[in-house]
Amino acid sequence: MRAAPTADRFLAGFADQRRAATPAQRVAALDRILCDLRLAVELEGEALLDDDGAVLLAAERQFERPGAVGRVLGTADLARVLERYAADPLYRPDDAADARLRVETCGALLRRLAAEPDLEGRARLLRRTDEAIRIEAGAIGPLRRLRPRRTRS
After folding, report:
1. What are the angstrom distances between the C-alpha of 50 and each of 35, 63, 72?
2. pTM of the complete model beyond 0.90
3. Cβ neighbours of residue 132 under 8 Å, at least 6 residues apart?
4. End-to-end alpha carbon distance in the chain
5. What is the CA 72 to chain-centroid distance, rounded?
6. 80 to 26, 27, 39, 99: CA distances (angstroms)
7. Dihedral of CA 89/90/95/96: which sign?
8. Which of 5, 75, 109, 117 minimizes the number of CB atoms within 10 Å of its CB?
């Protein structure tokens, strides 16, 4: 029997793959987005833990406090955190390019979560999260602003 992957390990593997696929000039922005995502795991994830998870979290915090929720939270709950992260304006960057990268990163993370065998029974949650990500994508302005053409009169 293999242990269920934790949110921390899952995000670390995802971050490595995402960094390798991101152009060098956007890696710093990606790192900020991933840092915000880890913050969301810490802030939102604790409320998702059951009683056993809360006990495990208390023990984990005795050894190393930063990142304790991510080391205890499972990947199934990571999908619930992602749904909140995608919808919460706290994590929304001001820059349109960074906001677009955030939405692309959320979409890629959601696709990777959907491929996890542990999440087969969570289709409704994954669809709802996908909807939140699509709504967020629709709120982002266009990549380039079109200027009106000047005409001679």
Report:
1. 25, 20, 11
2. no
3. 83, 86, 87
4. 77
5. 17
6. 27, 26, 14, 20
7. negative
8. 117
Nearest CA-CA partner of 107 in 81, 134, 128? 134
Residuewise pLDDT in 10s, the chain (153 residues)? 345 678 888 889 989 998 998 888 888 888 998 998 898 889 888 888 888 888 888 888 888 888 888 888 888 888 888 888 887 888 888 888 888 888 888 888 888 887 777 766 666 777 777 777 777 777 676 555 545 566 665
Helix (H), strand (E) at residue 66:
none
Residue 69 has which token pair? Answer: 């929720």
Integer Cα distance of 140 and 142 in angstroms: 7
Cα–Cα–Cα angle for 15, 53, 3, nearest 5°?
60
